[in-house]
Amino acid sequence: TFKEGDIVRKTPLTSTIAQNFFIANYLSTMAIDHDDGSGWYNVFSNVVLYGRSGAKQDFGGHDLHHRGNLYAFISRACYIDYGGGTTVVQHRNSFEDNICIQGVAGVPLFAVQCKKLESAALFRRNALYSVTSAASVCGMPYNVWQEVSNDTSIAYTGLPDNKKILAWARERLM
Which residues pair with 154 in a beta bridge? Predict the structure, then answer.
């Protein structure tokens, strides 16, 4: 509990991580790792190169919103939430308007708790690039996942060219 002027708050103010350039190399698993109950973050307009995953929430992380980021050459899932805690619907995470380019074939686009989709993160309007067309989530082909989860993202087969990736990076950092 803390005071903000005359108002007493029980939840913290939202923190922002914006317009950063991360190179997640040398044994990096995630460039931005929300873990162990992290909450109330807006993460937007960042450029993340390499790393094992794009965004990660775990062990009760909530109110974590990743929007408009570029995750390039990720070696695993664009978004990971392995669970370890329950997120109530009012505090769901979101992954929206991002571009994710997976640099490795045969990995899922998102790694989530497949048995708890009602409280899983909201996925909307992402552009997802995969080396192969075998993209999946929860063992389902991506188009089936979209129907089950109301995901409005678009999955592309093949990688964009470097000029396009650099243009997207500049847009986010300017």
Answer: 127
In whole angstroms, give the CA distance from residue 118 to residue 88: 9
* Sole residue written with tokens 């998102």: 110
Query: Tens digit of pLDDT for each residue in 20-39?
Result: 999 887 667 677 778 777 88
Indicate if the alpha-carbon torsion angle 90, 111, 124, 16 is positive or negative. Answer: positive
Q: Are 121 and 134 in contact (CB under 8 A)?
A: no
Q: How far is CA 131 from CA 37, 103, 107, 158, in A?
A: 33, 7, 10, 5
Q: Which pTM was predicted?
A: 0.89
How far lies 10's CA from each of 1, 4, 7, 14, 125, in Å? 4, 10, 10, 12, 32
Strand, coil or helix: 59: coil
For range 66-94, the mean pLDDT: 83
Burial of 139 (0-12, 13-18, 19+ CB in 10 A): exposed
Burial of 162 (0-12, 13-18, 19+ CB in 10 A): exposed
Q: Which residues pair with 23 in a beta bridge?
A: 49
Q: Residue 69, exposed/middle/buried by CB under 10 A (0-12, 13-18, 19+)?
A: buried
